[in-house]
Write a structure and sequence with these properties.
The structure is a homodimer. By secondary structure, chain A is mainly β. Chain A has 2 helices and 8 strands; from the N terminus they run ββαββββββα. Chains A, B: InterPro entries: PRA-CH (IPR026660), PRib_AMP_CycHydrolase_dom (IPR002496), PRib_AMP_CycHydrolase_sf (IPR038019).
Chain lengths: 128, 128
């Protein structure tokens, strides 16, 4: 088993998630050791939700899971990079392919591109 | 000024750093609000070093700075993505282009590619 440095940062490591075909960065999430081991054994990206304080299989509610194609580890053993196939085409809960759909331009944020889905249809009116 | 959610995570936000031409992820670092404002005003990637507990202009000792070409913000205002021109060609203190030079294969880590520079020549024998 590959041992990562979960102790250094209070048990949670940042995870950079890229589209395995285009290298577009889709999102950033966190894993604790249980999420890391679940990701390795299931090949579905599994994170630790800091807001809900529990394991979170990405796409468990929407069906838009992330199939893991490649895993990289950084030089300090404290950051994970996943290259994934994003089922449904969108990683962001706001319906965009990437969570990084806003660009800094002239001191403000410009939305780039269009949503792939309507969050209200996927998650309902009030939650995400 | 664009306001990010520095309060949510104790003042430090993760920053994903990509090569602006290839979209390869080079490293992950952290910014506090001062580092964020310095990056915006100087256009050189400036981070907060968690180990040294101070601002860190990437490349200040080696000359291998990161010229910022594009900045993206995620949907929660709590993660930054920089697309940079990495002067010197390598972002990793171990001499590799990317800090993510190791891949998970069959339960262990395989080094991908070769270093761009020898860290001993750039930083000296004992430090990085």
């Amino acid at each position: 088993m590959i041992k990562l440095d979960f102790d250094k940062t209070g048990g949670l490591l940042p995870v950079v998630v890229q589209d395995y075909e285009t290298n577009e960065v889709l999102m950033l999430a966190f894993m604790n050791e249980t999420a890391w081991e679940a990701t390795l054994s299931t090949n579905k990206a599994t994170y630790y939700s800091r807001s809900r304080k529990k394991l979170w299989v990405k796409g468990e509610s929407s069906g838009n899971v992330q199939n893991v194609k490649e895993i990289r580890i950084d030089c300090d053993d404290d950051t994970i990079l996943l290259k994934v196939e994003q089922v449904g085409g969108a990683a962001c809960h706001m319906g965009y392919k990437s969570c990084f759909f806003r660009k800094v331009e002239d001191g403000s944020l410009t939305v780039m591109g269009k949503p792939v889905f309507d969050p209200k249809e996927v998650y309902g009116e009030t939650s995400h």
